[in-house]
Amino acid sequence: MYTILTVLILAIFLYTIIPYLLSFGLNWRVYRHNHKSKKIAFTFDDGPDPFYTPLLLDLLNKFNIKATFFVVGSRAELYPEIILRMHQEGHLIGIHNYVHSSNWFTLPWKIRRDLDYSAAVINGITGTKPIYYRPPWGLMNLFDFFLLKSYRIILWSVMVGDWKENPGVEKIKARLLKKIKHGDIILLHDCGDTPGADFDAPMNTINALKEVLSEMQAKGIQSVRVDELWGKPILSNQRITF
Question: Of residues 87, 96, 100, 189, which has the active-site annotation?
Answer without folding.
Answer: 189
